[in-house]
Specification:
Elements (H helix, E strand, L loop, with lengths): L1 E5 L2 E9 L8 H14 L7 E8 L2 E5 L13 E8 L4 E5 L8 H10 L5 E6 L1 H7 L15 H11 L4 E4 L3 E6 L2 H11 L7
Parallel strand pairs: 2-6
Antiparallel strand pairs: 1-2, 3-4, 3-7, 4-5, 5-6, 7-9, 8-9
Helix pairs in contact: 2-4
């Protein structure tokens, strides 16, 4: 058991295994991560979190920010999350990102969501401020209050801003979400 301490938030992580995640969806996360890194301004994006539904679990990048060289061993498979106890059960060698519980809750609250891409950064917030709906309040990253606010805002749109944090895009498949990310955020042409 390890406990991750982050300013204003703490959650426990239990590792079912620290072995490398072996899931066919990892190649999609790696591909999207590299494409975002290649086609975006690095000063605009402070972090990227990509999660994909895998049955009743999710595959998500761990605490790793250089998406240009992301590898299989930087991925986590989230087996379960208990929001009451604030406990994650994961497979993989990395530490979960602060927003991992938020992604878990989105995937489990919305059966129509199989892909979530979150891009954090002040410039992203400024660029999309008047273009897409935003959560009502600034919340502690990864908190249950933030999760409720995100889920509420997602009722009306598949593209939302997380107040003073970044943009979140959800959808039924990778291609759909990827197209919206590149249309709204990332400079350059899609290949």
């Amino acid at each position: 058991m390890t406990e991750e301490k982050i300013p204003n938030i703490s959650f426990q992580t239990f590792y079912a295994s620290k072995e490398e995640v072996n899931c066919p969806l990892i190649t999609e996360i790696v591909r999207i991560g590299k494409k975002i890194k290649e086609q975006s301004n690095p000063k605009d994006i402070s972090s990227v979190i990509i999660s994909l539904r895998f049955g009743r679990r999710i595959i998500i990048n761990g605490d790793y920010n250089d998406l240009s060289s992301i590898q299989r061993d930087e991925m986590l498979e989230v087996v379960d999350y208990d929001p009451v106890r604030n406990v994650l059960l994961v497979i993989g060698p990395k530490t979960p990102k602060t927003d991992t519980p938020v992604h878990w809750m989105i995937h489990n609250a919305r059966n129509d969501v199989n892909c979530v891409i979150q891009l954090n950064g002040e410039k992203i917030v400024k660029k999309l401020k008047d273009k897409i709906p935003s959560t009502e309040k600034e919340q502690k990253p990864g908190s249950f209050e933030m999760t409720k606010d995100v889920l509420k805002t997602l009722r009306g749109s598949k593209n939302i801003l997380i107040k003073n944090q970044g943009a979140l895009f959800v959808g039924g498949n990778v291609k759909e979400v990827e197209e919206r990310v590149f249309k709204n955020i990332v400079k350059g042409r899609q290949k």
